[in-house]
Design a protein that fits this description.
The chain is α+β, with helices and mostly antiparallel strands. Among the domains are: 192-304 and 748-785, no CATH class; 543-647; 654-746, Immunoglobulin-like (Sandwich), CATH 2.60.40. A hairpin with a 2-residue loop joins strand 14 (711-715) and strand 15.
């Protein structure tokens, strides 16, 4: 549905442009050509994902990855409550309950997700696959816009449209996106880099503000301010998409570009610094509604600071650099990847784009091409992670980078830089040249052809040699050898096509348009052939959620109690099944586990102990044949090898405690009677619990609910302090008699963040209003002529 909506928006825009009478012929034609380019990218994206979009029983990624295991149940939970008009701040379905608004991975405020929740109801796994496809397109369309409208040529002219399409294809189907289809929030965040960079570049290079140096001068220079505002808005959008790592990569790229401009134009350092500050301030101000709760959750969770050994995991091994040219040498898909290291991104974006990038440095050596070459180089060195020193310095000295790992993902910046260079090189080749330069180009291509011949000969001999030597080896080993040989063979083919295309161009045997179309066809053939089938499977990744008999039993009998799948059942039952089906679990799939809950669980002592009973676990799921303590009774032998046991000694969800012993951090209720008499829960949601209480004596209402700062209790609408029970649960002090207790999750971090984000939004709207007003006033001024 989201893809249909995107196509409809494109079609509507094309119709409006075509039939708007104000546009002159030339303006209308240019707008139609630009829209045609964006439409072509949409068709090419559909062609890449033809199996997913048009075939049946095809799923991506293989096995589902995080898309099935984490994001699908998380987004389904979000949709359930968003479409009811409730913003879910707390998730009661995993780990006994945990903050939801503070987990940026939930992308709670991300507009494309919110739109999807209302267009596709109920949400299906297919909808998330289509959302991933949409972000591939956003990456490509944004890259086209950057290449077309950023000041990348010294003469101020835009790059050739075909060149922009070439760079867009190279970036959209580069290795980070191909490898991480299942990590939707990662590719969603990454997809906004080109648009962020476009507006930041336009802000820095607005011609009318070359002399602006003070804050006042910049704020009164309308174009620069508007571009900086847009850059900040899209940067905030990238943050809302829900993955901190590519967000930090984007900020790093902006900082490097700003620093490069200052280095090359020292007189402009104040202006660059101020515009960079405005961009960051707007981004932070808009996203602080998520940022402050996220910082609070990070402090409360067990995901503490990494050691450098942790952060350097999933580095790009130097030997894997062969993947820049031959991505399948060590296997590219999850099934055939091999080597004494984990499968990581290798930075492949096509053979011809690599050659075009080299021509950018040969034919257009100016500050901007030098910057994007340096950005690519820095990205590649950082991707080496623990194999090179630069990543360690970044980890230690740059805030934020000490909290992320998997440095191989820095190839994102490598591919971005090379994709820009590829478009510049393409444009340089098809632009008019003087005779001396064309003669030099012919000589370069001629020598390149001989070098390519040598490389192809060596590669072919190597491929043939490893196939011959692999005869009679272990079948699995021989399959790897065959895959590597096939990868080398395809590299030779692509290299030959690329050199042939260059030879044809230097001899001017084809028109520029025909040659450009052939170049685009070669790039698409390369990237599509090597990338379209990397992570395609034929097994439904949601089958692990479809345990019909077990789910029917649990939904009928659990009520407001918990299940426990934190056993040996993983592989038969996905950890977030409860989240998807509305069953509260003491387990789940999320790296941000609360420290208090983890400590409590680690010190339970067993499922027959009092501490376990306080968690209100009624049913435990195990593999068939697993022994259980005496307080558990088997109630179901379900399909798929799952057995369900009932805990006959579980505490109720809410109960009254009197004479509770005090502890250093609250009270201890583990050994007190707990029968639930006198308590009725009348309302339960992700943000609020309401109970009617009739207390025979003064004491505490004990809720088997995890306590974190932000939970507030009201007894007959009078706020009272919540006491921690057994270092984990909520205890509300009560007087004797009847009362209504309402417990609400209302964290200060969210209220403060929402206030700051709201003020920032008003500032942005006011700034745009001021810009439009000044522009209209300027138009009304009488001409001096």
């Amino acid at each position: 549905m989201i893809l249909i909506a995107a196509a409809f928006v494109w079609l509507l825009t094309f119709v409006v442009v075509t039939f708007t009478p104000r546009l002159g012929f030339e303006a209308r034609r240019n707008a139609q050509l630009e829209l045609a380019a964006f439409g072509a990218l949409g068709i090419l994206t559909a062609g890449f994902f033809w199996q997913l979009l048009f075939a049946q029983d095809v799923w991506m990624p293989v096995g589902g990855g995080d898309l099935a295991g984490f994001l699908y149940p998380t987004y389904s939970f979000t949709q359930t409550w968003i479409t009811r008009g409730v913003l879910p701040l707390w998730n009661p379905y995993i780990f006994g309950g945990t903050p939801f608004v503070g987990d940026i991975q939930t992308a709670l405020f991300y507009p494309p997700n919110l739109l999807t929740y209302f267009l596709a109801n109920p949400l299906t796994y297919r909808d998330l696959e289509y959302l991933a496809v949409l972000h591939f397109y956003i990456a490509g369309a944004g890259m086209y816009a950057l290449l077309r409208y950023a000041p990348l040529r010294a003469d101020g002219q835009p790059l050739n449209r075909f060149a922009c399409l070439a760079g867009a294809l190279a970036f959209e189907f580069s290795d980070l996106f191909i490898t991480h289809f299942g990590n939707l929030n990662l590719i969603a965040t990454a997809s906004w880099l080109p648009l962020i960079f476009l507006f930041f570049m336009r802000a820095l290079h607005t011609q009318n503000s070359a002399s602006a140096a003070s804050l006042r001068e910049i704020l009164t220079e309308k174009s620069a301010l508007a571009f900086a505002l847009w850059s900040g808005i899209f940067l905030a959008l990238a943050f809302f998409a829900g993955h901190i790592q590519p967000f930090l990569f984007i900020v790093l790229a902006l900082g490097l570009y700003g620093g490069f401009v200052i280095f090359t134009q020292r007189a402009q350092w104040k202006r660059v610094a101020l515009l960079f500050g405005i961009t960051l301030a707007i981004a932070v101000g808009l996203s602080v509604v998520t940022l402050l709760p996220a910082l609070e959750l990070t402090r409360l969770s067990m995901r503490s600071a990494y050691t450098y050994q942790d952060a350097a995991q999933y580095s790009l091994p130097p030997l894997e650099l062969v993947g820049i040219f031959v991505p399948g040498f060590f296997g590219r898909s999850p099934e055939n990847a091999w080597g004494p290291w984990s499968r990581v991104e290798v930075g492949y974006l096509g053979i011809f784009p690599l050659i075009l990038a080299a021509f950018a440095l040969l034919l257009r050596r100016n500050p901007k091409t030098i910057f994007f070459a340096l950005l690519a180089l820095i990205g590649l060195i950082l991707a080496l992670g623990g194999y090179a020193i630069l990543h360690g310095w970044l980890f230690q000295f740059v805030p934020g980078f000490g909290q992320i790992r998997a440095p191989a993902r820095f190839v994102f910046l490598f591919d971005f830089g090379l994709a820009v260079l590829a478009a510049i090189g393409f444009d340089a080749l098809v632009s008019p040249m003087h005779d001396a330069l064309r003669h030099t180009l012919r000589r370069v291509v001629k020598y390149s052809a001989w070098i390519a011949f040598v490389v192809a000969s060596v590669s072919g001999a190597l491929a043939l040699g490893i196939l011959i030597l692999g005869q009679g080896q272990d079948p699995a080993l021989f399959q790897r050898i065959a895959n590597a040989a096939n990868a080398l063979g395809f590299f030779i083919l692509l290299l030959a096509f690329s050199i042939a295309l260059l030879l044809v161009w230097t001899r001017q045997w084809l028109s520029a348009r025909v040659w450009s179309l052939l170049a685009l066809a070669l790039i698409a053939f390369d990237l599509f052939s090597l990338g379209a089938y990397v992570d395609v499977g034929t097994s439904d990744p949601t089958l692990g959620y479809q345990r019909a008999d077990v789910l029917a039993f649990l939904k009928t009998n659990t009520g407001l109690a918990r299940i426990d799948s934190r056993t040996d059942v993983e592989g038969l039952w996905r950890p977030d099944t409860g989240l998807l089906h509305g069953l509260q679990d003491v387990y789940g799939d999320n790296p941000l586990v609360l420290n208090d809950f983890n400590t409590y669980w680690e010190n339970l002592g067993g499922r027959d102990r009092a501490a376990y009973q306080l968690l209100n676990v009624k049913f435990v799921l195990t593999r068939r044949g697993t022994p259980m303590p005496a307080n558990f009774v088997k109630v179901l032998d379900g399909g798929g090898g799952i057995t369900v046991y009932e805990n006959r000694t579980a505490a109720p969800r809410a109960w009254l405690a009197t004479n509770a012993p005090r502890t250093a951090d609250g009270i201890d209720v583990a050994n007190l009677p707990r029968d639930g008499e006198g308590v009725t829960i009348t309302g339960y949601g992700p943000n609020e619990v309401v109970a009617q209480v009739n207390a025979a004596n003064a004491g505490y209402l004990i809720l088997s609910e995890v306590f974190v700062p932000g939970w507030r209790a009201f007894v007959d609408e009078q706020e009272v302090g919540i006491v921690r029970a057994n270092n984990l649960l909520r205890a509300i002090p009560l007087s004797q008699g009847q009362s209504q207790v309402r417990v609400v999750y209302d964290p200060l971090s969210l209220r403060l963040g929402a206030c700051i984000s709201g003020i920032t939004m008003l500032i942005v709207l006011g700034a745009f209003g001021w810009i439009v007003l000044r522009r209209n006033e300027k138009r009304k001024l009488p001409s001096r002529n």
